[in-house]
Structure formats: structure tokens, C-alpha cells
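Thread: Modeling a multi-component assembly for a lab meeting

Hi all, long-time lurker, first post. My supervisor asked me to bring a structural picture of a complex we are working on to next week's group meeting, and I have zero experience with this. I have the sequence lines for every component (1024 residues in total). Could someone generate the structure of the whole assembly? Inputs are pasted exactly as I received them:
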Amino acid sequence: MSASFERLRDLFDAASELAPSEREAFLAVECRSDPALMDEVRRLLVHDGQPREIFDAPPAIDITGEGSDVGDTLDAIDVPGYEVQRKLGAGGFGVVFAAQQLQPVRRQVALKVIRVGFAAPTVHQRFAIECDALARLEHPSIARVFDAGTTPSGHLFCTMELVDGVTICDYANEHGLSAAERIALMVPVCEAMQHAHQRGILHRDLKPSNILVTDTLGSPVPKIIDFGIAKMRDVDDAEASSPTLSGEFVGTPIYMSPEQADPDLGDVDTRSDVYSLGVVLYELLTGTAPAQSTRTARPSLASVLTSLREHETPLVSKRLRDLGEDGEFHAQRCGTTHDALIRYAVGDLDRMLAMAVEKERSRRYESPQQFGADLERFLRNEPVLAQSPTTSYVLRKFARRHRGKLALAATALVLLVTGATLTTVGFVSEAKQRRRAEGEARISGEIVQFFNDDLLAALAPEAMGIDVTVRETLDAASTKIEGRFDELPDVDVALRTTLGASYRSLGVVEESIHHLKRACDVAEQHLSREDVRRLRAFREYGAALYTAGRYDESETVLRTVLEDSERALGGSHEDTIAAAFHLASACSEDPDPSKSLALVEQWLPVSRAELGPAHVQTLQFSFGLGHIHLAENKPQEALAVFEEAHERSREALGATHRMTLMLTNQLARLRIQLGESSIAEKMFRKAWTESIERLGATHPTTLNLRTGLAEALVADPTHHAEAIEHYDALLAASSTVFRADHPTLHDFWTVIARGYLRTGQATRARALLERVVEATEESSTPKALWAMKHLRQLAEESGDKAGADAWQARHDRAAERLRSAEEHHR
Amino acid sequence: MVPDPADGDLTAVVRAASSGDAAAEDALFRIVYDDLRHMAKRRLARLSPGQTLQATALVNEAWLKIANGTKDWDGRAKFFGVVSRAMRNILVDDARRKASVKHGGGVARLSLEGLAEASDELSSLEFLALHEALEQLEVEDARVAQVVMLRYFSGLGHEEIARMLDVSERTVERDWRFARSWLQDRMSGGSTDERAES
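Re: Modeling a multi-component assembly
Sure thing. I ran the full set together rather than chain by chain. Output:
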């Protein structure tokens, strides 16, 4: 036994004895220096106690198939009236021969002999009844059943039309049928199935090898063979109908409907055959059955089982694209190019196939007739029945398949995306609106697919653990989106805008700007100036520039967005109001508050009237107005504005909503200013704790609340020790959260340095103030001046006269530069 | 001296094998393998399709037949060791045959197409994956692998296994718990996925 294996074993034994909630902490300590080992123990713990059939049921032994093929013993079968000629094939049920019927007419037939083992006495009678029913099926696309009976040696047999053809897929490929010809070939198959269903007969085992195509009259005629055999198979044998219990089973899994594969889902009915018809057409169109995918070459067993059970069937167009070279090859067999075939599939064809192979059968075509009719409509370029899945349906499916936080994170993101792209706008004409709706439906389809196949696959719980955070969801989306929608610029814009906005709301500015910049570039190339998606991309980009501290760029971008938005959407549209708000924010960084005040005074009443007094947008405007009052040194007016907004925010959004927390922050700060620091301390402490829980300890809002708490503590000398602890922690946290040249970081430094000064921490204060100067002197901000002033004071206090003079001189030079810059600005 | 199995003196073979005679153990293995297969075939012929035959039931029947009431614990331990191995071989052969029927021999072709063809084949491949994981476990920790063999292929209880291996019942329980997780991990890809190469 290797040492590492022994260690693994010890850790597993110890950890498995612990309560699940304690295991992580235990492993974190034990595996500090060995993340790979930690990973392995974690994986083992996931399996611990999980039921798995192979371990929990004794192995079953089955050596019946070895070297004693029943078919061999049937080679010399004797059926009166027939001359057996050659063996055509064998399956679980028995053997099929080509035979010559001698009387009443001479003709070639297929003679099917059922294995004795399957023919319990009661089965004989049912077999006869079944064959009788089959004999009554008369459809050009169903192989006729002629006769049935028992051989002298006790075997059951039936004879049927011998179809001299090849399987439907082979036929289509060998003859290079086009996609439309392939669809047309399935129409009579659907009609034939309808004919059978009307006579109460299900097929249950439709697959390409059971649909043969003959070409005798110059045009291809598909013929369904092997009817009802499956049904005979499980008569009187309930266990045999479950594929996992018996050696041979009914149906072939890749063509089987979910309800056939899992008896718990209910009885098999006509829609199960619809599913199989869909799978066959899917294979005709893509060269692969839905459950096959060359992308997942050599997956682990577990992942295959999971994918069979859980994955949605990819759209035909998506599968074709994913197949890459195989897709190109298949397109050639269809006499076209890869791109053209994909284009042909996008839209109605995708939707029809998705509806046919829908896992939930109530959403499938009700009958083969309905499916066939839709195919015909498609071929005639008429509108089809099949529709895109609705957003709520997709979300329901997510929630069902993924539990816990993963569902939450993924669903939140889906809501964001679909919500953002599906907004229908009220100002366009009917026709325009219809076109838009179609466009939106297509986008929503693409997005649904993206989330299903790319994002959720990347977020597989087995890969990431069950507690997937929103950040991980975004990162997964971020990786997956690259290059994925190059051919669909509008989808690319919509998704990237949402991703960028989501990153911004998490305070991850760089990623945010990356996606938004890209969204704007693509939007500029492909979308009109008035397009909602383009406006949204630019608006979010402007907002992100603001968050990044690039105020001038932000103002320029947002001013254009506001103009375009007013023109395209009107002055009372939510998007226009949002653009105005972001612009006001960008302007508020300007030393001159009048620009910003003008915007707020114009737009706050609009927002209140159009969106409501408790709408986040209105609250944000109020927040801005309060700030402007503070800048104008009107604390009482600011207090009134903040208090009203805070009240509304608590009511409408809840006490822990980020908006409410930000307003709490403002109110508490005002309390400090008004000399009520103990009230402020309580407010800050509560809000800070709540913010950690909701936004995380390093979120800018949380950090901001913590500076407030520290400031409130500074007012009471007995609390200085705690205040200093907070400042130290803030210094460490802010430096990891923000980039070195981020203005917000310099704000934090200034605040922290002031805290150090006020609590008598001269050394720490000096070091930090020097960093502030270093970072801000060049741009001559008020922050730099303030820092230099304090550095001069500190030098003086420590008796360093020369140092103090040097700082004074530097301060004056910087002040001069700032003054001339301001004059220039005016 | 290896007793001639043809004499039917199985107890003697078991005794010789348990005293460490490698040739006797080999002989015992062949006897048991053939015997189990023979019994299984006869049994299966009488079952109707869909019914399954439990490997462990068969093993215990073989023991009753062979041991003929002996209370020799050493022999019993050796016998079940051998019989577990024989049963495993039979099941592996069966699984290989099933898995290869549709592929013309590709035993561990774990591609989706291959797997999806038949759920029967799926369980065969799953079994082969278990077999291969167990081979790895034998390299890592022979005793734990032994516990799996005795429990899984012979259907013995923990108490019995503990007595045979001369360890505490608690150890057997822990061994099984660990083995189950470890094997599942290897079967589902784990860290070193070499299955597909075989």
C-alpha cells in the first residue's frame, strides 16, 4: 500500500465519521498543502452512502447466450407450406428467414420464428390474435403480415412481406437525398404509423433498421417492418418490459422514448412512437441520433448515464454545427454545404424536431399524423405548429434538473438574459412588432440552447461541486461565450451585455468592461442606432466606465446613449430614464455640480411618475439628489431625501437589498455629521453584517459600510482599538479588490488614513498618505492636496522642519496646477 | 501432491489449497469455475426470460455441495477466496461477451454510441469498469480488495468475512465503506482513468 493511498484512506475514514457540515473544515486543515488529495477525498465523500445499483444488488449471472444461439437450432426449421431459403438475421426474439411460400400463392416472404423459450402456453393464443390484428394493417408503407401459426416442433412463426430494401438512413445517404427529400421520405412513414395507431397497434421499436426503403417503381417507398413483435415479447411477463431487468429488452435505447426507458414515467402510448419517428428523422438530417455525439468521445460511464438521463436534445442546427467535420461530411451527403444545411435547419425545422423528441410527452406532437402534417407544411413553406419553448418552461426544467444554489445562480442568470432580450417595446407597428417577436423568439431559442448545452454542461455539479456561486456561473458563461455566437451578432450583443452588467453588479470591473466593450463593437457593426439591444449595450458600457473611474469617457458615451434613447424609445421609456441616471452619475464626479443637478431635477420627477416612487431607478435618483445636497452643504435637505428613499427602499426591496444598504450607509454618515455617532455605530454594524451575508465581505458596498462603522467608532476614544482593527482590515481588503490605479481605492486610502490620523496612528497614517500622493499627485486631485497637507502636519509634529517645508512646497505647486486646470475647464 | 480432481475429492483439494499449495489452488479454481458455470447453465435453462440468477446464491450453493458439512475454517476461507475469484471471472467473461457482441470485440469502447446501443451492454460495461477498478484496488490495498471479493462475489456477511480475514468486524465495515466510494470514484473517471486503454 502506498503512503499516499494510506493517507487517503485515513482521511476518508476520519472525514466520513464527521457530520457532512464539518467535513470541509476538517479537510481544509488536513490537506492544506495537498489540494489534489483534498480533491480526491472530497470525491470519495460524494459517493459515500450513495446508492448505486451495481453495489447494492448482488450481481446477476447470465451465460445463456454463450455458444448456444437458439437461432442455430432453427436453421433447419420446418414450416409446412414454406420452403425456408436462408437466414436473414437474428435477434433476441428469434430468427428471420427468407422463405418461399408454396401455397396458396407462390411468393417470397420473410418468415419470423419466435424462440421457444419465449413462448409460454398463454402466449400462443395472444400471438395469434396479435398477428391477426397486424394482418389487418393495410398501408403501402407497412410491410404486410400474411400468416401466423405454430411449427410442428412447437415454434411460433409469422410470415410477412419480404421487403427488398435498405434501411431508410442508408438509402438517403447512398442516394444523396437532400434535406427536403429526407423529410418528404418520412411523411408516408408518419401516415403509416397513424394508420396503425387508429387500429390500436403501437410499434414500440421504430428505428432506421425497421424502416426499409424500396426503389422498385423509380420512386422510393419506405416500409415499416417488425410491427408488434415488441408487444408480443412482454406479454405475461411484467419484468421483461423493464430493460434493466432482462437480458433482452424491448426497443433500442437510442431510439426509445424516455417513458419506454423508464417505466416509472408511465405507460407507453402513441406519442412514444412519435418520439421514435422524431429520432429517425433527426438521424436522417444530422447523421447522428440525438443520444450520439462525437464531441463526447470516451466519456466516463457516469457522465454517459447522466447525459442520457438529463441532457436536453440539441437542436438539429446545433448538432450539425457541433459535429464539425462530421457535419460537413453529412452535409455533402445531403448535396449541400455545411453552412447551408445549418441555415436550413435553424427555425421551423429545429422546432419541429425538438417538439417530436421532447422528453415530456405532453409537449410532443399528439400523433404521427400531426407530426407528418407539420413536416408537409414545412415543405410547403407554411407556418408550422411547433413553437419555441417559453422562458418559463425552460426555467421550470432548470429548476427540476438542478437543485440548490446551482439552480439559483443559473436561473438568476437566465432571467437576466431572457428578461433583457425579450422586452417587447410598445412603440413599433404591428408588422414590425411581429418581426421583432420572431427575432426575439429566435434569440431566446439560441440562449436557451446556450444555457442548456454550454453553460450548464460547464457547471456540471460533478465538476464544480453543488454550491456554484453567481460568480462561477458568470465565469463559466464568460469562457463559453467566446466565439460561440460569431454568426449571431444580436445574440452575442445581448448575452455579453448581460454578462458585463452582471459582472459590474458584482464589482468585477475589468471583466465587465471587456464584455461590454465587445458588445458595443459588435452592436455598432450589426445593429441600427435605434436598436434596443445596441442602446442597452452602450448604456451598460457607459455605466461600467463610470464604475471603473473613467468618468470623462463615461459621460461622452452616456450623452450619446441618452440622445439616441430619447429619439428611439421616447422620453418616458425606462431605458431612457436609466440612461439619464447613469449620465447624471458620471456628471456628478465633475467638480461643478450644476450639470448633474440639472439632470437629476429633470429626470427624478419623470422616474417617479413613469416607474413609481419605490422603483430602484427612482430611489437611485433620490440617492443622487441627496448627494448633491450634501455637496452643496445642505445636510438637513439631504437627510430628508435619504430618509424618504430609505423608507421606500426598505418597504419595496427589503432591509438587505443593496439599495437599502447604501441608503442606510448615507443616513448613518449623516448621523455622524450631526454628532449622533452611537446611533450611527448601531446602524452601520447591522448593515455591515447584513451586507457580508448578502454581498460578501469584500464587496465595495460592504467595505463602504465598514468604513462607516470605523468612523462611528472613532468618535468614542474608548473604541479606538476596534476602529484601528477595522481600518487595517479595510486597507488589506480594498487593495485586493481594486486595481492600484482605481480612484475608489484612493478614496478608501484617504478615508483609512484619516482614521489613522484621528486615532493617533502617525506611522501608519504617514505611510498611507505617501501612497495616496504617489497615486494621485499627477492628476492633482483634491485627495493629493489633502494628503500633502497632512503629511506636512505630521512632519511638523515630529519636529522635522525640512520635511514639513518640502511637503508645503509640493502642496502649493499641486494646488496651483489644480487651480489653473479648473480655470481652463471653465 | 495435488489430489486428482477427477476423484471428486474436493475437500482434499480445498485442504491442499489452503495449506498453501499453489498447484492445488489452481486446480481448485478450475474445478470451481467449471462447476459454477455448469450449475448456472442448468439453473438458467429453467428460468423464464427476465428472471435473473444471483451469483451469490450460486456460490453458496456450491459451498454447501463441496464442503459437505465441514467446519474447517481455514479451508472455508480459502474456498471462498477461490470461488469469489471464479465467480468474478465468469461474470467478467459474460460481460465481455455481451459488450463485444455488437462491436466485434471492442471490450471497453466507452463511446456514447457504443453505450447507448443497449442498456444490457451498459450494465456489462459498468461491470467491466468495476472489475478494472477492483484490479487497481488490489494493487493499492489487498485486504480491502479481499473484503470486496468476499462480500460482493460470495455474498458473505461482515461477521463471516472478519473471521476469515482475522480482523474486527468494524474493520470490515470500514473497508467496505471506503472501497465502495473508492471504486465508484474510479468507475466514474476518478483521477487516473486508464480503463479505456485496456
